[in-house]
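Researcher: I'd like a structural prediction for the single chain below. Treat it as a standalone chain; there are no partners to consider.
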Amino acid sequence: MKLLLLFLVFFSVGTLLAQPDVFEAEGLGNREVEPTYRLISSPKIIDSLAVAPITPQPLLQLYSSTKINLDTIAAATVETTEKIKAIYPFYAKIGVGSTIMPLGELYFNSTRSRSAVYGAHIKHLSSYGNVKDRDKITYAPASFDKTSALVFGQFIKKNITVGGDINYENYGYHYYGIPSENISADSIRQRIQRTGFGISLIANRGDSSRLNLKFDIAYKNLNSQKPLIDSLSDWKVRENNFNFNTRGWYNKGSESFYTNLGIRYNGYKYGIADSALTAIDTGIVLNNTIIDLYPGVASSLLQKKLLVDVGVGISIDVNQITRAYIYPRVSISYSLLHDLIIPFIGIRGGLNQNTFSSLNNVNPYVLTNLALSNENKPYDLYFGVRGEITKRMTYGINASFAKINNRAFYVTDTTYTQLGNQFSLVYDSLNLTSVEANLSYQMNEKIKIDGVGRFYSYEMKNEARAWNLPQLQFILRGTYNLYDKFLIRADVTMESGRMAKVNGPGNGVLTENNQYFIPLGFLIDGNLGVEYRYNKRVSAFLQFNNVAAQRYSRWLNYPVMPIQIMGGITARF
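Model: Treating it as a single chain, here is the predicted structure.
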C-alpha cells in the first residue's frame, strides 16, 4: 500500500510539472479569504507506537484415565541359620607311625570374645625304633620322648592389653652316635626339663601424639637329669634365664620416635646334683647380664613410599669384664610402581647371649658342661629388592655382609667322652657373606608354593671351616587344597658343603691348616602329607617323612631315621 501511494504522488507531481507555466480559464467563484487563527501548541514528534494487546490463548488440557492393577507379592522369608563359621573349642590329633612312634595333641581355645583370648596346648611324640647308617649298621639305642604343655591368655580392656603364658617341656633322649647296638641305654640317656612363663602388658593410648608403652617379662628354668650313681663325668645342669624388655613409642605426624630398654640375665651352673656350688667346687658357675638400649626414629615420606628407620644400639655385657658395644641401626626402603619393585638397604648389629638352653635346642647332643660366651656381631650390611610380580606372586633377592665374633661351632668332644658321641664348643671369628633368593605363589587358599635358595661363604679366622654349616641350601614347600576335601602338603630341603671336624686322618678325611675334617655329604630331606576331611569336624591324615629314605648325618655319627610313615585322625569338638 505504501508503494502504491508513493507511486501516485510521484505521478501527480510529474503531471503537474508537465503543464505550461501560463494558462487562462473563465468562470465564476467566491473570492472570500478565510480568517486566520494562532496555534497554541507547539509541534512535537511522536516516537512511540502503540502496541496492540495480545490476547493469551490457554493450552489445551488433555485428560487420560488411570488404570491400576493390584498384584500379590510373596511373603518374605528370614534365614535363621548361622552365617559365620562355627568355632569349636577343642581340637585333638592322634596318630601312630612306623618304628613304634605314637603322637598325641590336644588344643583348647576360647571361642569368640571381644575382651579375652585364652587356651591350652598339650603335645607328645616319642619313638622306640633303632637307627642304622647307610651301611645298615645298627647304632646305640636311639629312642626318645618329648612332651610339651602350654597355657596362655590375653585380656583387652579399653587401651590396656595384658597377656601371659606358662610353658613346660620334658625331653628325654639318648646320645646314640655310637655304631654299636650293645651299648646300655641307661649309660647314654639324657633328659632336659624346661619350665617358664611370660607376661606382656601393652598400654596403647593412640596412634598420634600419645606415648605408648609395652612391657615384656620372660623367665625359663632348665634342669638336666640326675646322673647315674656311679657316674661323675656327667653332672647336673641348672640354668635360670630372665629377660625384661620395655618399649616406648610416640607418633607425631609421619614420624615415630621409639626407645627399647632391656635386661637379659642368664645364670648357668654345672656341678653335682642337689648340691650348692661354691668357689671351691670343681663345677662351673657363670652369671651373665646384658643391658640393652635401642633408641631410634622411623619416618614415612613421599606418601608412605619411602620408609626410613635410623637408630643406634647400645649393649653392655656385664660379665667377668664389663664391656660396652655400640651398633649402627639404619634401614631404608622405597616402593616403586605400586610395590612392584621395593629396593632396600640397611645396616644392623647386636650382642647375642649364648645359653645352654639355646645351644641344646640347636644340637641336643652337646655336652652339659660348657664354657658359655656371648656372640658379638659388630655389623651386618644388607641390601636387596623385593616386590610383587602379580597379585599372586611375590619375590625377593637380598645379600648381606656380616662380621661375627665368638661364633659357637659344634665339634666332636674327646676330652670328657671317650665314645665320641657328644659335642663341645669352639669359638671363632668370621666374615659371613650370604645371598638369598625367594619366590612365592598363592592362589587364594587352593595353592601355596614358595621356594628359597641360599648361598653362604665363610671366611674363618682360626678354624679351617665353619663346622656343620652348609654352603648351599634349597627349600621348596607347597600346599594344595582339592575341593576342600583333600589337603596335600609337601616340602623338600637340600643342603651341601657341610663339614665336620675330626681328630686325625682316616678314610675320607681331608686336611687344611693342620686340621682334619670330613664332608657330611649331600643332605636331602623330603616330607609328604595327605589329609582327607570327612567333614568339617573329622579328618584322617597320612604323613611320610624322609621320603627319599636317605640316612644322612645331621651331626657327625648321628644318622637320621629312614622313611617314616604315620597315620591318624583329627577331630574338632
